[in-house]
Design a protein that fits this description.
Elements: E1 10-12, E2 15-17, E3 24-28, E4 35-40, H1 44-63, H2 66-82, H3 84-95, H4 99-119, E5 127-128, E6 135-143, E7 146-150, H5 158-169, E8 173-177, H6 183-195, E9 203-205, H7 210-219, E10 223-229, H8 232-244, E11 248-252, E12 257-261, H9 267-279, E13 289-295, H10 299-310, H11 331-346, E14 350-353, E15 372-375, H12 381-384, E16 391-397, H13 400-408, E17 412-413, E18 415-419, H14 423-432, E19 437-440, E20 456-457, E21 475-483
Helix pairs in contact: 1-7, 2-4, 2-6, 3-4, 4-5, 9-10
């Protein structure tokens, strides 16, 4: 650890603390290696203290009227709005996405926090007619208790707030375990809640390794719900371990998202979509466009336009507003992406563009990879496995039916896109594409916070984040019967 590194602690029971003798780790800017800070590598004992603080805070937070909880969230949103530029630059420096996307990450968090604040005046149940006289039936939502929020590095302010804000408005308390690589962003997330006056213990932060801190959260019986976003294999392990204790486990996992371009598409519009969808965030989104499915009638022309446009595509310092794409997030990501370049070549795919680590000058200090395009056949590893980097697989099809078959024939089902001027075909695609999200004449990225987000198959286990559906993850339904008849009535029993 450099003597100049800023030190950060854990946030437990409303206080920042540095446990005596704690091991530490650092995060660094993937563009140039600068330190973003030194953080505590928490232990299971630290996680247990955070859970204890959340458990003690739960009764009081649960009893706080939901509209009052919403008022605190509104203050969180206002604080984050005030600090948007500052936090957006930290996102870009720690994760590597270009500055417009760094600001967008923060804006998404602001939007969702404000949206969830409004849920404090809804949190709706249902009223349902009874089969008996003088009897009233309804449902209400109640919080689950202590929630563990385990988040990834690619949206280091938006995704944590998706989980935290929805859990808090529902009356739960939270222990937040971020990806280690974006621990500085996690600190800034928690600071906004602290500044807004959130009561002690309602939100706690523990940084450190998933195998240590994450496992401690999953195993502790006081944690009643786990919300996890990350890779499929880790998600499966979280799910199995949580299920052993009958905990609610919500998973948001990977994607292998297709953009279909039909022969009647607006090619210029589809071109802008693929550039943003495939290479925005250097392809490091679960909704990134990793497969381009082109109708054979536009295949050659579209690739010509794409190649021409990429000649003017800039890769460099993500803080420079003129740059189109920054680095991948870490040395591990760089190794993984370049490994898939080798896999594609070994499979016989045609490397149309890119495939190299950029070197020389400022590139030598970071993890910069060229936008990479392979022409391949359906069924190869690069056309079916999630890469999470700036690699695009291009597949040629001869019809709408073939395009849909290819799009659906993977183990994921998060996002999908089709470009066509045929309204009937567009509505067929809404029905036919196996995905939780479908875009018509737009890329596979660009979710809005007021709509449910999630997918099918290996993308998750069926729940949804964002929108009004977000609170379903963090609430239990209680059914209430009010009998005001003054005598015993027996449902389903014939009267004598």
């Amino acid at each position: 650890m450099s003597a100049q590194e800023e030190r950060f602690g854990l946030f437990i029971d409303g206080k920042w603390e540095e446990p005596s003798g704690a091991a530490r780790f650092s995060t660094r800017n993937p563009a140039n290696g600068e330190s973003l800070g030194s953080f505590v590598a928490a232990t299971p004992a630290d996680a247990a203290r955070a859970i204890g603080a959340a458990a003690r805070a739960f009764p009081g937070w649960k009893e706080t009227p939901a509209p009052k909880r919403g008022e605190i969230l509104l203050r969180v949103g206002q604080e984050l709005k005030r600090r948007k530029e500052e936090v957006g630059r930290i996102v870009t420096r720690e994760m590597g996405k270009v500055i417009s996307e760094g600001r967008g990450d923060v804006q998404e968090a602001i939007d969702f926090i404000e949206y969830m604040a409004g849920e404090g005046r809804r949190l709706a149940g249902e009223t349902i007619p009874s089969e008996l006289h003088a009897k009233f039936c309804l449902t209400v939502r109640q919080p689950k208790g202590v929630v563990a929020a385990i988040t990834p590095w690619n949206f280091p302010t938006a995704i944590p707030n998706w989980k935290i804000a929805a859990a808090l408005i529902s009356g739960n308390t939270v222990v937040f375990k971020p990806a280690s690589a974006t621990s500085r962003c996690a600190v800034e997330v928690v600071r906004t809640y602290e500044a807004a006056g959130l009561p002690p213990g309602v939100l706690n932060l523990v940084t450190g390794a998933g195998g240590v801190v994450g496992n401690a959260l999953i195993e502790d019986p006081r944690v009643r719900a786990i919300s996890f976003t990350g890779g499929v294999e880790t998600g499966r392990e979280v799910y199995v371990r949580g299920a052993k204790a009958l905990k609610m486990v919500h998973l948001e996992l990977g994607g292998k998202n297709p953009q279909i371009v039909m022969d009647d598409a607006d090619l210029d519009l589809a071109l802008e979509g693929i550039l943003f969808g495939a290479f925005g965030t250097a392809g490091q989104r679960c909704t990134a466009t990793s497969r381009l499915i082109l109708h054979e009638k536009v295949y050659d022309e579209f690739l010509r336009r794409l190649n021409e446009r990429l000649d003017r595509f800039t890769i460099g310092d993500p803080l420079d507003p003129a740059v189109d794409m920054g680095p991948v997030a870490s040395a591990d990501q760089e190794k993984k992406v370049l490994g898939y370049v080798a896999i594609g070549q070994a499979e016989g795919a045609t490397l149309l563009r890119g495939g190299r680590k950029l070197t020389g000058g400022a590139y030598d200090r970071g993890y910069f990879i060229e936008p990479t395009i392979f022409a391949t056949r359906h069924g190869t590893r690069i056309s079916t496995e999630e890469i999470f980097g700036p690699i695009l697989s291009v597949l040629r099809v001869g019809s709408y039916d073939e395009a849909v078959r290819v799009a659906n024939d993977v183990s994921y089902g998060l996002s999908s896109s089709i470009y066509t001027r045929d309204v009937n075909r567009a509505f067929r695609a809404v029905q036919d594409l196996e995905a939780g999200i479908t875009y018509i004449n737009a890329p596979t990225i660009g979710a809005e916070v007021q709509l449910p987000f999630g997918g099918i198959k290996n993308t998750g286990n069926g729940g949804r984040e964002a929108g009004s559906a977000a609170i379903e993850e963090f609430t239990e339904i209680k059914t209430v019967f009010v009998d005001f008849s003054g005598h015993l009535q027996k449902a389903q029993i014939d009267p004598r």
